From TrEMBL, chain A:
Name of the molecule in the record: Rab-GAP TBC domain-containing protein
GO function term, MF aspect, one: small GTPase binding
Keyword tags: GTPase activation
Matching SMART domains: TBC (SM00164)
Cellular component annotations (GO), alphabetically ordered: plasma membrane
Residue stretches making up the Rab-GAP TBC domain: 28-216
The organism's place on the tree of life at top rank: Eukaryota
Pfam families, sorted: RabGAP-TBC
InterPro entries with a match to the protein in the record: Rab-GAP-TBC_dom, Rab-GAP_TBC_sf, Rab_GAP_TBC_domain
Automatic annotation (TrEMBL), chain B:
Gene designation: RAB15
Protein name according to UniProt: Ras-related protein Rab-15
Enzyme class, broadest EC rank: hydrolase
Gene Ontology molecular function, alphabetical: G protein activity; GTP binding; metal ion binding
Membrane topology: Lipid-anchor
The species this protein was found in: Pygocentrus nattereri
Amino acid sequence: MKWLDMFRNWDKWVTRRFPKVKLRCRKGIPSSLRAKAWQLLSNSEELLRDNTGKFEELEREQGDPKWLDIIEKDLHRQFPFHEMFAARGGHGQQDLYRILKAYTIYRPDEGYCQAQAPVAAVLLMHMPAEQAFWCLVQICEKYLPGYYSAGLEAIQLDGEIFFSLLRRACPMAYRHLKKFKIDPILYMTEWFMCIFSRTLPWTCVLRVWDMFFCEGVKIVFRVGLVLLKQMLGSVDKLRELQGMYETMERLRNIPPESIREDLLVQEVMVNTSAFYTADWGSIPT
Amino acid sequence: MAKQYDVLFRLLLLGDSGVGKTCLLCRFTDNEFHPSHISTIGVDFKMKTLEIDGIKVRIQIWDTAGQERYQTITKQYYRRAQGIFLVYDITSERSFQHIMKWASDVDEYAPDKVQKILVGNKSDEEQKRQVATAQGNKLAKAYGMDFFETSAFTNHNITESFTRLAELVLQANKKDLDVLRVSINDKLNLAALEEEEGVCDSSSDAQKTCWC
């Protein structure tokens, strides 16, 4: 009911009572309303309205074989155990192809980046192709600009920023990673580019995405910091990770039982103030 | 703690997206093949210990995303490698043509004495073959590399190709290890060696025994 009321007066809620909207997103969006909420939060619904027919138009175009070739190879490599994407040439894979291809025509200068596929797949699990397409556009252009562009400079820069934030947020984890020369790019590339969709247990992924759509990229940073804190933040935990290999292995395959949804979200919120006073500077709350 | 290996090497898997780099690695390290798996985003690695000529060789194998734009990230790791697999897919002419590009990047960014082998994967998909074995052989010969056709699916030539590259790396580095040993055990000997080299450099025509 609360959410339905917000939907009815969305503009008013966002402009006048945004802290309340934020709080509700942090508590988790009810699953039946999630698709609608994501589209409102990202403004993709408006974008779709302003571009009626555009998606169909993009679909009618041929596309550059250079991109289509790589996209085709990736279709069966996203959530292969999800019923929607399991079947080769099934509906899920077909829709994935449609929106990834459409994006390369919409932004020929950007083309296709392999990390867009899991993101698009998560969107498709919630909404039809056209809606998912515009939502993807917003993620690539508004939320994570440059993350998927040729050169991948933005993600590498954020890796460095992330590491310097870690120094204050969890010095023990920072020292451990430094000691074994584990560059941020080695573990955070997939975390950040796929917005944790390949990293966390599913219920956590959805909670993180709820907050991400509302608050933006800082959620990605905070979740990353909380994960490092939980994996590398105590002497006990470090004892079994005495090497680069062991540490990388743990960070690339986070044991699902070690992450609890409510604790993760709580930590992400609790740590807000600590992170801000440190290095966040101009990024608005 | 007992030492579990004598030498540690880093090997790197390079090649276009979808040629099967991750599958080769999974087959080699875990003897598993997953028809359903996810694309590699960024860089990953696995370890395995082999015994070659009585030497316990621990190899760290780096797996990379194949898409071109990830190369700004993966290239940073070329210089850390002692051996490189250049992998193509025998059912993809395009992936074979791109080997030239991969090889020239390796020349540019990897250490000079890095060892390379050429691997044509998916040899089980004979009916879809676009690259003849002879073509692979010819290219490998042109580059002075060993060549294997492999199948991660049927486990064909997997251990063979990984062991071969490990052997090559071992051979290439054996000299250094031996020289190192000499320098520790017999300083005089090494000094003599240096002197000889010095003479050789300054007046090569006067030194009849020098063939360099």
